[in-house]
Write a structure and sequence with these properties.
By secondary structure, the chain is α+β, with helices and mostly antiparallel strands. It has 2 domains: 46 residues, Uridine Diphospho-n-acetylenolpyruvylglucosamine Reductase, domain 2 (2-Layer Sandwich), CATH 3.30.43; 204 residues, 2-Layer Sandwich (Uridine Diphospho-n-acetylenolpyruvylglucosamine Reductase, domain 3). 32% of the residues lie in helices and 25% in strands. The strands form 4 sheets. Strands 4-5-10-6-7 form a 5-stranded antiparallel β-sheet. It has a 4-stranded antiparallel β-sheet with strand order 11-12-13-14, sandwiched between helices. The radius of gyration is 18 Å and the shape is globular.
């Protein structure tokens, strides 16, 4: 681990100021990615800005919108009564992120800002058409994810909350790596009044993506059978020691059908 300065500001304005003052500054949310990267000397920040004292914690419901503050942990999302009642698929997704230690430290904002191509939350955010709120603007999910570990966030921009519209039903399934519990393939399906959205994580070389052919089929006939013959091309799929591109492409169809059946 390289030497770095450490700051723990007590206001959002001070945190933003610290991050914007130095291009090599890094924000620390739950630390589930940053700390291992620091220990492996894969990153060399000049200063680490801890967001723990900013008060960005909590879940609120207003009408048909569930708002989750950026520093809210996965465990809090998984066990929250409002999330379970309004978007049970989202609570179930949070409950299968990592292990107990990860769920009690990792945060929704940290996960989204990192945008790991095998993370779970991006699939829910994209499928549910959520809005990412930051200290300076609102970003639609379709505009937020821009590739592997890449988002629309600018230097020093902090996720303050994520707003989820309540769907008619939704569900998430994943085929997980048994060691890391990251998604080898994960699919979130959301049925809304405007149609169905299907988002896939873990499979694509560029991170989370929408499976539009499945969306069209499910919007016309919401059932697992409607997508049984839809083939996801292997081109653009990730291939590694855990699964080939062809296998991941096949799994998208299998896991998507399970997500449709599971949705409630």
């Amino acid at each position: 681990m390289y030497d770095f300065a450490y700051q723990k500001p007590s206001s959002l304005a001070d945190a933003v100021k610290a991050l914007r003052a130095d291009a090599d500054a890094k924000a620390l949310a739950g630390g589930m990615t940053l700390i291992p990267v620091l220990k492996q000397r894969l990153n060399k920040p000049s200063v680490v800005v801890d967001l723990a004292k900013l008060g960005l914690v909590g879940i609120t419901v207003s009408g048909n919108t569930v708002s989750i503050a950026g520093m809210t942990t996965h465990g809090a999302v998984a066990h929250n009564a409002d999330v379970k009642a309004k978007i049970p698929g989202l609570a179930e997704l949070a409950s299968v992120i990592g292990d107990d230690a990860v769920r009690h430290r990792g945060t929704i904002g940290g996960s989204l800002a990192n945008n790991d191509p095998a993370a779970d939350y991006p699939a829910a955010v994209l499928a549910l058409g959520a809005t990412i709120k930051t200290d300076r603007r609102s970003i639609k999910a379709d505009d937020f994810f821009q590739g592997m570990f890449t988002t629309a966030l600018e230097q020093g921009e902090i996720i303050t909350a994520v707003e989820f519209p309540v769907p008619e039903k939704s569900g998430y399934e994943k085929f997980r790596n048994p060691a890391s519990r990251y998604a080898i393939v994960g699919v979130y399906v959301a049925k809304t009044a405007g149609g169905v959205r299907v988002a896939v994580t873990g499979a694509g070389q560029n991170g989370v993506f929408r499976q539009t052919a499945m969306e069209q089929a499910l919007s016309a006939n919401y059932s697992p059978d409607a997508i049984a013959k839809i083939v996801t091309p292997a081109d653009g799929m990730n291939g590694d020691i855990h699964a080939s591109a062809e296998y991941r492409a096949h799994l998208v169809g299998v896991i998507a059908k399970r997500a449709v059946a599971r949705a409630h």
